[in-house]
Records
---
Amino acid sequence: MAKVFMFYSRLRTEERLLIEAARQRQIHFEPVVVSDRMWPNEIGGKGDVALCRCIGHVQNHALALTVEARGLITINPSNVMEICGNKISTSTRLSTAGIPQPDYAIAFSLEGALECAQKMGYPVVLKPPVGSWGRLLAKVNDRDALEAITEHKLHLGSQHSAIYIQKYIDKKGFDIRATIIGGIPVSAIRRCSDHWITNTARGGTAQSYPLSDELKKLLKQVHEAIGGMMLAVDLFETDSGWLVNEVNGQPEFRSSQGDITGVDVAGQIVDMAWSATCKEGEGVV
């Protein structure tokens, strides 16, 4: 009989919620700690589904590639992880689809970074192409600061050799995190903070936020552009309309769950994963 596996590196709140949701539904669900195994191995096979819940993008992507080769359906698929795991890939995909986002540019030198900032106008935000939780973000207000930060980045190794620069958006103390499961927007929260970084992992507080028809339409466009079965989309609400800031393919969701939104996100993820076991031989795109 088909089974849902949950591969994880650390048992966070989200993974505990998924285990409990599966227990309540009495489905065939097996949590597996990735550090206890070598990969590839004999776990699972064609028709099974894998929830890839490692903390790091590199581990998740490597894991998905490995188990997909054995015929498992991964959530999300490795190609979607690759898009969401790199901000350059995400931004270019959104740009191709005509989805509104903050102005962005890529530089490979100090001179290029200075040119980007001059065209955008200060302040700008420097982000590592690969990363989460708002780590290593820098709001840059002037040329002197940009020169200093760029010089540091260019000496930190290949991971920082492509400099992702985004126009700073005054989001008035909050942004929106929306969750899409199975292509359907299911919840949204408003993340508030006195700091310009509003991630809940960095101390932002979460409030429920209504899913308007306009927002749902935009989120469905994002899903069509990115693909996948589970996405979390970070957006800015501006006077001129919505801007998509980032798209997450392996999101934490505890702030979008339960008391805050009234939505059982974990239960919907488990239901979606279990229904995918019926698609033996089919890929998930």
---
Amino acid sequence: MDLRIEINETPQEVDYQAILAPLREYNQAQTGLIGTEKFAFLIKDDAGATQGGLYAKISGQWLFVELLVVPEVARGQGLGAKLMNKVEALAREKGCQGIWLDTFSFQAPDFYRRLGFSIFGELKDYPVAGYNRFFMQKRFDLDEHNASHTQP
């Protein structure tokens, strides 16, 4: 079979799926893990319209927070912390060993630090010079380790 590389500057969903399918097959063969579970905690207004919320996926033993948005009018009132507490409870219930997410320096790294997250990776000057993207985690096994080593 002859193979060649072509650039497609307007890829379609079918192109994405064609690349994703063999990668999923390989990953499943290596790990035994099949698929992901998806969850959303929605912030609704009086009319029932979604104004924000949290979207997460569980793959293996980790929950990934893909999206977290609190409407501007509700920021600073504890709604983001409530969402994170709910998703953490869900992750623990599902047997996850932790939660991970990414955020930008202009978004909420301090918010996540206050919730017990730590940075495990950083991409400097992204999305543009002067800003950074942080990859953060909260490991539940570290909670248990720290609790067992505290003085009474």
---
Amino acid sequence: MMNISKTKRNFICWHTLFAVISAALGAVILHFALPGHYFGGYPFIPVYFYFFGLASIYMFDACRRHAPQRLLLLYLAMKMIKMILSLILVLIYCLAVREEARAFLLTFISFYLIYLIFETWFFFSFEMNQKRKKKNKKKHETVA
């Protein structure tokens, strides 16, 4: 069995489920709710966000184990890297495929915001659980 933390496993499972659902929902919306707006580069968007999320999970896990005091700094750095890389990729795609630029840009921004909300929710709930565990641990140490 692989040595994988419960938090890491949970986040990978939730992240994968979220990626599949959001990708499928996005495709359905582009095909049926906005007919004619589906574009060839669509699959790239959910794949990009999925793999960036996986890379983030592994980096956060390594940071949590080796330098937990730098977790917030890593979180902020990953958000900046994601924003800069996203801007570069959007610019390249929009210049290369001008006829799909508007649909790509709107779809990419939608995914960016949806993933921002999802990741913020997950890490907020993770931090709350960590604080709860520390509080319970201190409470049990005081009683003992």
---
Amino acid sequence: MERRIGWEALNPVVSYANRLACDPGFAFGPRVVKDHQFIYTAEGRGRAEIGGRAYDAKPGDLFYYGPGVPHRFEADDDAPFVLYGLHFAPIGELPATGAIPYELPVDIRRGAETPPLAEAKLVLGDAASGFAVPEYISLPTGFAEPFFASAAQYFRLTDVLNHLRGRALLIRFLTELYERVRQARVEQDPAASLLETVRTRLRERADEPYRREWLSDWTHYHENHAAALFARLYGQSPHEYFLGCKLELAKKLLADENLSALETSERLRFGSVHHFTRLFKRRVGCSPGAYRRMGRLV
């Protein structure tokens, strides 16, 4: 099961956040929860089971599972872990005042009663740039713990401002986690160096019409294969990336060189000023003329 949410629609609510120092051998589960949840190992060791998959948990390890996915955690006898738990809904509304109405987020079911659902993915972004939140990832200890420690602190304070801070923290964490995962993928991909050259050349040719055959010329792959590799590595198609470069150049021409929409469209060879204007407004949020006028303001 997969839930896909566009970045622009992400509006999370932290429904519970806590820090738990476990006793030796302490365990919880098998259980399922009603919310999405992160479990972060701050200290110590233990074992984690999520949807039938087993992991050794150590400091810096982050686990994620969605609603209905069975899971179990057990602390080591000699070095029991310290965990942060954060339950959240990807889209939700904060209360106007006071605390979020709290409902127990855990529905414990054991043995044969454990539901069969073994995996639930949360995917952020559109089809071209989707980011599947990983079930397990090892992170630098200095990166994740401050987020979870602050979220736990804010949750204990019941005014709406602190719940808003919890939302802001989670948005920042998810976007930075996406960047870390993307960068790791780039570093590990054997085609990364070649595809980085493609990105550079697309930026350099942003004032030209897009040509799909560039992909085969620059990589010696079939253009469909090159496009698929590019999308896997960077989360968007070469054409989408090229349009982004083209619009960044258009903004520079409008603001810095004070060109009109028609002049900018012709300089960048968009084909027609109407196509340029529609694309610019859809992606930038205002017309080329309005953007040009904003460039004159202080």
